[in-house]
Automatic annotation (TrEMBL):
GO terms for molecular function: metal ion binding. The keyword Signal applies. The keyword Nucleotidyltransferase does not apply. Residues 138-152 have a biased composition (Basic and acidic residues). GO terms for cellular component: cell envelope. This is ABC transporter substrate-binding protein. InterPro entries: Bact_metal-bind_prot9, ZnuA-like. PANTHER family: HIGH-AFFINITY ZINC UPTAKE SYSTEM PROTEIN ZNUA-RELATED, METAL-BINDING PROTEIN HI_0362-RELATED. Keywords: Metal-binding, Signal, Transport. Residues 131-155 are annotated as: Disordered.
Amino acid sequence: MSVSRRLALPALVAVSALGLSACGDGGSGAADGQAGAAGDAAITVVTATNVYGDIAAAVGGDDVEVTSIVSSLSQDPHSYEPTVQDKLAVSEAGLVIENGGGYDAFLGRLADETGVETVLNAVELSGLEEHADEEPAGEDHEGEEHAGEGHGHGSFNEHVWYDLPAMATLATAIADELARLDEPNADAYRQRAEAFVEELRPLQERLAALASENEGRDVEVAVTEPVPAYLLEAAGLEDVTPEAFTEAIEEESDVPVAALDEMKTLVEGGGLAFLAYNGQTEGAQTEAVRSVADEAGLPVVEFTETLPDGEDYVSWMTGNTDSIDAALGS
């Protein structure tokens, strides 16, 4: 296996990492970012967002020091411009976790510029991009049920942290890489990763139960951006957002008037279960869609791209699932 360490094999390639408030904001650590031979210094981990930082912290425990570059709900990861401090943190990292798929290209550039050897890429690790055009939604992939390509419009959905099996795979990859960097603590990393995976199982079972309840009912939703698409599909919901609307939002361009009108008509038409809304990338056009939903009495379910304050990954996804369930029952 190549350990340049932009790990090239899907078994060990994965994602932009999240830093958590619980882990502190510092990025400094042992020389070269690795623990000493006696395990006397924490491995420094830098992630693109605090989502991956939380997962890294859950696996690494007290043996890692995590810095998440994007950690606020007021920041838009798509358009984030890294600082000198970010570059310094990456240069000192023993492990960098990027999302990949074009989502957080700034982190890949920083890793290249600073010569960081170990980079996990979540998109590559998930296998979702590779199989996006060949697997129907819900088909078993490598022993886990994934939600398919994400938003059903033919292009790949890079928001893979909303796919629970992908994050279970990522946790295992993080443990394997930390074990390589810090062999004395290898068993502890792997045990914590296994515990994280086990925490996800009841939530996956709950989503599967929702999907079973919705089977054959054609439960439709619309989204202002396909951030939560994998989670929605895991619950058996169909995203029917007009393709031209989705493409414009994803490309951060103005939505064509015809597409915006089509979206508004869809939202006020009475056929949707709810509108999924991402406030981190809102603008005048998405706010207009939300206003139509409010006027029509359509439930609006909020989703974010980074962890809200006081949440960890599992509690966050549990809350998102609670919101989906409540909207379906309203």
